[in-house]
Amino acid sequence: MATAGVASRRKSEELILEGKVKVNGIVVRELGFKVSEKDIVEVEGKVINKDIKHVYYLLNKPIGYVTTVKDPQGRKTVMELVPKDKRVFPVGRLDIMTDGLLLLTDDGQLAYQLTHPKYLVEKEYHVKVKGKVGLDQIEKLQNGIMLEDGLTAPAKAVILKEDKGETLISLTIHEGRNRQVRRMMDAIGKKVLKLTRVRYGHLTLAGVPVGKYRLLTKKEVEKFKNSVTHLSKILDKKQ
Ligand code: URA
C-alpha cells in the first residue's frame, strides 16, 4: 500500500488493523500480508493497485557478484548494486564470472516474458576464447549444438577479432539455459577467457559503467511490452 502511494507505512498498518483493507473482496487484518499483481486490493472501498508503477533497472554487473537476491554462502550479490527501496529481482541470471547487462525489476509478468524463449528476446554476448576459431566451429554455434539438455536453437555467431592467440566472438542467442554460452563453447572445444553480455533485446550497456545502473525509460519498457504482445498474437493464431 505504501508502494502504491496510498498512505505511509504506519497509516497503512492502521487501515489494515481497522479492517478497512480487502484483498479480492475479503477483509485482511494481517500486517505484512503478501499480495501479487493479480490480487485486487481495496482500501475503504477503492481499488488501489490498478496502476502501480513498476521499476526497471539496467545494471552493468561486475565479475564477482552472484545473481541472486540472497546468497547462503555470503557472497556479494547484484542486489547490493541497486536501490533497496523496491522489491526488485534479477531477470534471468549471469554467472559469477560473467559481467555485463542484467535487468532487475519488480514486474513479474514482464520478467517471465523476457526470459521465455518463445518471445525470442535476443541476448548478445562477447566471448573471448583461447586460440583460433575455425569457420566449422562458427557454423556449429550457428546451426545448433547438442548439449545435455537438448539441441540449442539457431544462433548468430561472428568473429570480431583475432589477436595474440585469442579470439573475440559475438554470440547472439534467445534462449537462456543455465551456463548456456560456456557450455556451447565447451562443446566446440574452446576455453572461455571472458564472457560479457553486451545487449538484451534493444538495450545495450552504452553509458553505464561497470557496477552502475540506470532506470529504463518508459519508451524502452513499452518497446519490450509491444514486442511481447505482438508475438503473443502471432503465436495464438498459429495454435
Ligand atoms: N551463458 C553463460 O554461460 N553464462 C552466463 O552468465 C550467461 C550466459
From TrEMBL:
One of its GO terms (cellular component) is cytosol. GO terms for biological process: enzyme-directed rRNA pseudouridine synthesis. The keyword RNA-binding applies. InterPro entries: PsdUridine_s_RsuA/RluB/E/F_cat, PsdUridine_synth_cat_dom_sf, PsdUridine_synth_RsuA/RluA, PsdUridine_synth_RsuA/RluB/E/F, PsdUridine_synth_RsuA/RluB_CS, RsuA_PseudoU_synthase, S4_RNA-bd, S4_RNA-bd_sf. One of its GO terms (molecular function) is rRNA pseudouridine synthase activity. Keywords: Isomerase, RNA-binding. Its EC number is 5.4.99.-. Residues 1-53 form the RNA-binding S4 domain. Gene3D superfamilies: Alpha-L RNA-binding motif, Pseudouridine synthase I, catalytic domain, N-terminal subdomain, RNA-binding S4 domain. It comes from the Bacteria. The keyword Ion transport does not apply. It holds the Pfam family S4. Belongs to the pseudouridine synthase RsuA family. NCBIfam families: pseudouridine synthase. PANTHER family: PSEUDOURIDINE SYNTHASE FAMILY PROTEIN-RELATED, RNA-BINDING S4 DOMAIN-CONTAINING PROTEIN. This is Pseudouridine synthase. It comes from Anaerobranca californiensis DSM 14826.
